[in-house]
Specification:
This protein is an alpha/beta fold. It contains 18 helices and 6 strands.
């Protein structure tokens, strides 16, 4: 009787996520789990999100990978904010907890994406905006074969790195905002115990991934040169090859591979804009600083945008700070694109069209030529004088 409506709603959501974790992937693809059509382009349940929305308007393009547990109406609001800023081609997609928040989900997501004949995100974008768990979503999409061509990446309230300590911190901050009894977990359960529990779960999940990896590796050798599906195993094999160390609780190699995949091999002048709040309880600011330093080492133009807003709320409350950074500093970036050496690992780095486009965007508007006063006509000489 003491339970309120909010408590009942929280318990129902928790039960939903427990059942969703046990459901087969086919149920997600058919859009049956959520009780409505799912919003990710890879799920067949919603053709409206699967279709490219270029027809809605002209202008720049953007891909927004949302945060954990983002609702459809919230993502639609982000899309409207981008459209008000002149982006006529905007694609939004959620970051599903079952796919992004655990090793088994990583392997399953990459395998499903690799098996598709054409990745839904393989195209050109002017801006890719990842929010919170969207950073890991982007990592998995790239491993799954997405050939995205973009020169600006906005990292909003992220990166949340693929390791137990980062997810434990995120989970404790999230539960602290929930009603009782979930809000009591970070108060009653010490951090070391919570981290040990998450690490143990991830170790069992990594062991499962390793077994799948071993079987897939044997299958790849048998199918080499005989089946078009053999090449689709590259992404899952890359995830599986990192599983043995993860079983022992070491995830440094997974973090390094994630950062290298997202920031490595980018064209000259590639921008990484970090929207940060040093007091954000969902992630460790030291991790953000380490990733920014690594992105600089990989040749990215890194810019930090400090904000005072809560987690993932800057785009709603301080959109000018984000879009001002996206549209600013163009002359400096054009000079960097022209002067920086091209990376051999990415053929797009030698594309002269990109350099010329940045130069054109960096040109100041033409000023009107100053008006020079016309000299007055001299009077004709008087013949009498």
């Amino acid at each position: 009787p003491a339970l309120t409506r909010a408590h009942l709603w929280t318990l129902m959501r928790s039960l939903f996520f427990c059942l969703a974790a046990l459901a087969p992937a086919s149920a997600w693809q058919n859009g049956r789990i959520a009780g409505r059509a799912t919003t990710h382009p890879k799920f067949r349940g919603n053709a409206r999100f699967a279709a490219n929305e270029k027809a809605e308007g002209e202008g720049r393009s953007a891909l927004v990978l949302g945060w954990f547990d983002a609702k459809e109406n919230e993502l639609e609001l982000v899309k409207k904010i981008y459209k008000k800023r002149g982006y006529g081609d905007v694609t939004v997609a959620p970051s599903l907890i079952a796919s992004v928040a655990k090793p088994r989900g990583w392997y399953r997501t990459v395998k499903e994406m690799s098996a598709q004949p054409e990745h839904p995100f393989s195209r050109k974008y002017d801006v890719v905006h990842v929010m919170s768990g969207g950073f890991l979503n982007l990592y998995l999409q790239l491993l799954g074969g997405a050939r995205m061509d973009f020169d600006t990446l906005v990292l909003d309230s992220t990166p949340i790195l693929p390791r137990p300590s980062s997810f434990t911190r995120f989970a404790r901050a999230y539960m602290a905002t929930m009603p009782a009894p979930f809000s009591l977990v970070p108060k009653l359960v010490p951090l070391w115990l919570h981290l040990g529990f998450v690490t143990l779960r991830w170790s069992f999940a990594s062991a499962y991934v390793f077994v799948r990896y071993a079987l897939s590796k044997v299958g790849a050798k048998l199918l080499a040169g005989k089946s078009p599906t053999a090449g689709a195993l590259a992404g899952p094999l890359q995830i599986g090859s990192m599983a043995p160390k993860a079983v022992l609780g070491s995830y440094s190699h997974v973090v390094a591979n994630c950062v290298e995949t997202v920031f490595g091999g980018r064209p000259a002048g590639f921008r990484a804009i970090f929207v940060t709040n040093a007091a954000d309880p969902y992630l460790k600011y030291r991790d953000v600083q380490d990733v920014m330093a690594k992105a600089k080492e990989l040749g990215c133009v890194v810019q930090e945008v400090p904000v005072k807003t809560d987690h993932v709320k800057a785009v709603f409350r301080k959109p000018a700070a984000i879009f001002g950074s996206i549209d600013g500093n163009l002359p400096e970036l054009a000079a960097a694109a022209a002067a920086a050496p091209a990376k051999a690992s990415n053929p797009a780095a030698t594309d002269p069209a990109l350099v010329e486009a940045l130069k054109e965007r960096s040109k100041p508007p033409p000023e009107a030529a100053p008006k020079v006063p016309k000299p007055e006509a001299e009077a004709a000489p008087d013949p009498e004088k």
